[in-house]
Design a protein that fits this description.
The chain is α+β, with helices and mostly antiparallel strands. The chain is built from eight helices and six strands, in the order ααββββααβαβααα.
């Protein structure tokens, strides 16, 4: 008989609970503004650029926020739907580290209260996103990340500000997710969902963003599968002999 308590539990799944806890700890981390010397929690900043990194240290996604770093990043990773996750562009289970470039000089700037400053802040934010986007593509072994769209060309020149980088998964979760066979299966699943979505939406050449994501995911899967295959011995482990036949001898 099925244990009724298994359906009554109010405890979230282990990995979900661990992620929320680790992400919350990350967002409460102190960030010291090198210009003013003021200390604030990294998740409390309104304006900033963020990037996700996978278990191989590869940059996989870059985004920006004008609302709240903790809220924006949280929507990506804790089950609150975003277009990026809904389209299978980004798999939250691939994210191990986050890097955030906050813009404390624009804290409290809103379109309603300070329209001119808000316009300047938005231009600065767009330019910073472009800068980080290009930088991480250069640092990637695939020369690509998983963004469906490219940031617009900047209208001003900015320099990279101080950033904060940290891990957002616990050791217990890493033990589960870091195994290459688990990650290979996840990437294959994401590719399947993404390609199905492209087929169902009839994506053509005018919407190449998703097709580029699919190509990048395929490269990432091939690289990981090749690393795993080689680590286990590669061609030396392939048996030699006739293929098995399904024919039954009389």
């Amino acid at each position: 008989m099925t244990d009724r308590n298994a359906f009554d539990t109010k405890t979230p799944p282990f990995e979900t609970d661990e992620l929320r806890s680790s992400l919350g700890k990350f967002m409460r981390s102190d960030f010291v503004d090198p210009v003013t010397g003021q200390t604030n929690r990294i998740g409390s900043f309104t304006w900033g650029v963020y990037a996700f990194f996978d278990y191989d240290g590869e940059p996989i996604y870059v985004g920006q926020t004008k609302e709240s770093v903790s809220e924006r990043v949280g929507r990506h990773l804790t089950g609150q739907r975003t277009d990026t996750v809904a389209k299978s562009v980004l798999d939250p289970l691939e994210v191990k580290d986050i890097q955030i470039w906050p813009l404390p000089q624009f804290q409290g700037v809103t379109a309603k209260k300070k329209p001119l400053e808000h316009k300047i802040a938005a231009q600065h934010l767009n330019a910073l996103e472009y800068l980080i986007h290009q930088k991480l593509i250069t640092e990637s072994r695939f020369n690509a990340i998983l963004n469906e769209k490219d940031p617009p060309a900047p209208t001003m020149v900015v320099t990279e500000p101080a950033s904060f980088k940290g891990r957002i998964v616990s050791d217990a979760v890493i033990e589960i997710r870091a195994h290459p066979d688990f990650r290979i299966s996840r990437r294959a699943m994401v590719i399947s969902r993404l390609s199905q979505g492209i087929a169902e939406r009839k994506i053509d050449g005018g919407e190449g963003g998703l097709r580029r994501v699919l190509l990048t995911q395929a490269k990432r899967l091939q690289w990981l599968a090749d690393q795993r295959y080689s680590a286990l011995g590669g061609d030396k482990t392939v048996p030699v002999g006739p293929e098995e036949s399904s024919d039954v001898e009389e």
